[in-house]
Design a protein that fits this description.
482 residues, mainly alpha, hpI Integrase, Chain A, 3 domains, two-stranded antiparallel sheet, 2 strands, 2% strand
């Protein structure tokens, strides 16, 4: 079964409601049209009928009270259906905006709403997780993370960043040798505040490498930095969140089932900046700020740059930083230097050993060449291992007592196999080298000689019989007469 396509903001159901919010941005117009449609479906009236009731109403105050009760009932209806408090608070805003533009402003229309709740299932970014994600990302994702941290924009404003403006800013920063360069974006439709942020050194570096890649891919710079595959428009908010999830997954960062949203990077930046100056933090991130408060800041741009520079060490993704991270980096560098010195000392000792071995081996090279010649081995320098094994085998075969004993026992086994009478001998006792005596009877003539042999006389003790001496015959002399 094919997966159903995701509904876009431009589906036909809200087309007739978009006209009530003309003049707003496309996303805001679609969002308010969807909220107005949901309210009209619940109440069972169309926007035209609501306007007609307002025109026919004699008492405008009583009509306003009735509309306020309807909005309160709609808010309670959403709570009963199980929606979260923050969602129930934002849905009636489209109806209030409709009345403000076409009828009357509903006074205290949100008074009945519950207090906003902090989200409990959203992943919170820290400097460590952002640095890890930045380190394991490719060029495109590094550009995304560095710009998201530097600008602190909402997802809607971040997706509408244009390539040409960024290219000119990067060129200016490179020509002037600037580490930070101010980026003044478009005024937010929600707050009517024009953000005054700055590009960080890593953002400038990533954009300088990424923009030529993007230009080569589409045969020219597209309009939007985060464009779709065709280059005709930018990706959606959902696509931006999915891209951020893939970045964390590639860096092996565990989210424990929490929702990963681009808006959390904006919260991360604002929390760091507001610790220095709350009003300047609102200006940089384009949040709603009182104009009377800004009048007491004589040089707004210089103050924004000062606060941004002072806070940079707390959100820098790479480069020279100070504080705890700098101390840890110094300790790691020192450990690496010590390890490198130890390796260099070991290499020096190994080199000395190798030199000694080369001298000793030079004296034995002639013998190895001769051994290779005897064995028929060509190119001895390519068969050194084989020659050493052969030389060791020859030496062990000649001098090793174990091998000698083993060869001796093999010889004894062969002899015992050839001589059955020697089977009872110990294997360690040497066998007789004479052939075994024959079991046949002696010949007759040998028996007669044995019988005719005189018995030997016993000699008396203490007396030694003199042996008769014989004269040696001279050469050529006649034998003696008998």
């Amino acid at each position: 079964m094919p997966k159903p396509k995701r509904k876009s903001w431009n589906y036909e159901d809200i087309q007739e409601y978009r006209k009530w919010f003309e003049g707003q941005t496309r996303n805001t117009q679609n969002r308010n049209a969807r909220k107005l449609k949901q309210f009209c479906d619940w109440i069972g009236k169309t926007p035209e009928q609501i306007l007609k009731e307002y025109e026919n109403a004699q008492d405008k105050k009583s009509w306003q009270r009735e509309r306020k009760k309807e909005i309160e009932a709609f808010y309670n209806h959403l709570k009963e259906k199980g929606y979260k408090i923050n969602y129930c608070r934002t849905q009636p805003l489209g109806i209030l905006k409709f009345h403000t533009r076409h009828t009357e402003t509903i006074k205290e229309g949100t008074k009945c709403f519950d207090a906003p709740q902090l989200p409990d299932n959203e992943y919170i970014f820290t400097q460590e997780t952002l640095r890890k994600a930045f380190y394991y990302s490719d060029l495109e994702n590094q550009t995304l993370l560095s710009l998201a941290v530097a600008l602190g924009y909402s997802s809607a404003d971040f997706l509408e960043l244009e390539c040409e403006k960024l290219r000119l800013l990067v060129k200016e920063a490179k020509d002037k040798g600037l580490d930070f360069i101010q980026f003044i974006g478009k005024s937010r439709a929600k707050t009517s505040i024009q953000p005054r942020s700055h590009l960080t050194p890593e953002a400038i570096h990533c954009l300088n490498d990424y923009l030529p890649t993007l230009e080569k891919k589409f045969n020219g710079l597209p309009k939007y930095l985060w464009c779709n595959d065709k280059g005709t428009g930018h990706i959606t908010n959902e696509g931006l969140n999915k891209k951020l999830k893939r970045i964390l997954k590639k860096a092996n960062i565990e989210t424990y089932g929490k929702q990963v949203k681009f808006h959390e990077i904006r919260k991360f930046m604002y929390s760091l900046l507001q610790a220095k100056n709350r009003d300047i933090a609102k200006v940089i991130t384009a949040k709603k700020v009182s104009a009377s408060d800004l009048t007491y800041i004589p040089n707004l741009d210089a103050e924004c740059l000062r606060i941004f520079r002072e806070s940079y060490k707390e959100f820098a993704l790479n480069g020279d930083v100070t504080g705890k991270a700098k101390k840890e980096q110094t300790e790691q560098i020192k450990k690496l230097e010590n390890a490198l010195n130890h390796v260099e000392k070991e290499n020096a000792s190994f080199k000395t050993r190798i030199d000694v071995m080369q001298k000793q081996f030079g004296a034995q090279s002639e013998k190895l060449d001769r051994l290779a010649e005897v064995e028929g081995i060509t190119s001895p320098h390519r068969h050194l291992e084989e020659l050493f094994d052969l030389a060791l085998e020859i030496a062990l075969d000649k001098k090793d007592p174990k091998r000698k004993l083993e060869r001796r026992r093999k010889r004894e086994e062969k002899k015992r196999a050839a001589c059955p009478g020697a089977a009872a001998r110990s294997p360690d006792r040497p066998a007789c080298s004479r052939p075994p005596t024959s079991t046949r009877s002696a010949p007759p003539w040998r028996s007669r000689a044995a019988r005719c042999r005189r018995p030997t006389r016993s000699r008396p003790s203490g007396r030694r019989r003199a042996r008769p001496t014989r004269r040696r015959s001279r050469v050529g002399a006649a034998p003696p007469a008998r």
